[in-house]
Specification:
With about 150 residues, the protein is of the alpha/beta class. It contains five helices and six strands, in the order βαβαβαβαββα.
């Protein structure tokens, strides 16, 4: 494996996110890295999570030999950014954003522009955001330290 780096698949509690895990498994194998699954919920969701979807995602993650971590945090971008740094993410993998969706991808890219982002659409096609040049390390470090 490539220096303990990983593909970090960010999923939401929907059964349709299982295709992200399957795509992540292929990408991880192609790049000789591991696959990690991260699901970030708002803190209040711990009282009523979508158990059926989470069980299905856990089943698919287990089949992909990928650990799945569930985090309850009201700042999903900061939680995912911190986790990506901790796990030495090689690439962030998400679903393709729909119209009027959150600004998760743009915000993650602003915090960690050096990490490529791969987005999977409904047809399984992968789109990539390539890392920026001239990374702003001091800003990134101060944001991540304060999480």
């Amino acid at each position: 494996m490539s220096a303990n780096r990983c593909i970090l698949a960010c999923v939401t509690p929907q059964v349709s996110c299982s295709k992200l895990i399957e795509t992540g498994k292929v990408l991880a194998k192609q790049n000789d890295v591991t696959l990690e699954i991260l699901c970030v919920f708002p803190q209040k969701a711990c009282l009523n999570p979508n158990v059926e979807a989470l069980c299905e995602l856990q089943r698919v993650a287990t089949e992909a030999d990928a650990p799945m971590t569930i985090v309850f945090n009201d700042s999903p971008v900061l939680a995912a950014s911190s986790y990506a740094v901790k796990k030495k993410a090689f690439t962030l993998l998400t679903g393709f954003p729909r119209e009027n969706s959150s600004k998760f991808i743009e915000s993650f890219h602003a915090i960690l522009p050096e990490i490529p982002i791969s987005m999977v659409d409904d047809d399984g096609k992968v789109y990539r955001i390539i890392p920026s040049q001239g990374v702003r390390q001091p800003i990134r470090q101060s944001i991540i330290k304060n999480i």
